[in-house]
Design brief:
With 295 residues, this protein is mostly helical. It is 77% helix and 0% strand.
Amino acid sequence: MGKLRGKDVSQIGIIIVLAVVAALCILPFLLLVSTSFTDNNTILREGYSLFPSKYSLFAYEYLMLNASSIFRAYGITILVTAVGTVVSLSIMALLAYPLSRKELPHRTGWTFFVFFTLLFNGGLVPTYMVYTQLINVKNTLFAYLLPFFLVKAFYVLLMRTFFMGIERSLIESAEIDGAGEWTIFLRIVIPLSYPVLATVGLFQAVAYWNDWFSGMIFITDGRLYSLQNLLNRILLDIQFLTTSTMVVATDEGANIPVASVRMALAVIGVVPMLVIYPFFQKYFVKGLTVGAVKG
C-alpha cells in the first residue's frame, strides 16, 4: 500500500506540474482573445485584462472594412499551405530515402552535401537574384513555395535517420518477392514512416502558414498577399495613421482602435490553425500507432 500511495502522489505531482504548464500556455492566448474584444479606450485606461469592464467588436468591425482582401489572403494562404506541405514532404521523403540506403553510391558525400546547407547559405541578396532573375518567381505563388521551405536539410536528415531504423529484413523480403524500389518505398517504407511524416508535415504546415518573409521579399502585388503579409500591412498602416499628426487631428484618426486591433490581427492569424489542428491530430496519433505495430 505504501508503494501504491507513493505512486499516486507522484502521479498527482505530475498532473499538477502539467496543469501549471498548460495554464501558462493557455492564459496568454485567452488574454489575447479577450483583449481583441475589449473596448480600446478601456485598454488604454485599465490595461489588459481577462475580464475587461467593457467589451467591444469595434476592432473586428474596423478590420472588416478590408473583408474582401482578408478573405482573398485566406484563400492564398490555405492554398500555399496545403500545396507546399504536400510537395515539400514528398520531395524531402524522396531525397531522404536514397540517403538511408547503404547501396547508394557516394552516400556519405551526398549526405554531407545536404548537411552543408545547414551550416552555410548564399545569403539574401544572391537568393533574391536567383529567384527573381533566374527562376523569375517574383509576384507569383511560387515565391511562397520555393525559396525557404520547400526542402529543409534538418528534416531531410531527420527522415533519413528514421528510414535507417526500418528493419532491413522487410526490404530484403520485398526484393526477394520481386518488388522494385518504388514499390518498396510506397508500400513498405511510407506506411511505416507515418510518425515522422506527420511530424515533419505538421511543422511544414505551420511554417507555410506563418510565413511573412517570403511575401515581404518577393511579392509587391497586393492581390497576391498572403494572410500574414496582409495583416502586417494593415498593422503598418494603422501605425502610420496613429503617428501622423494630420490624421490624428481628425475624428477618424482618433477613433482607430490601435491596441485592440493588434490583438484582433493576431487572433485572425492564429485561430484557423488552432481550429484545424484537432481534425488532423487523429491522423497524427494513428501514424504513431501504425508505426509502433508494424515496426
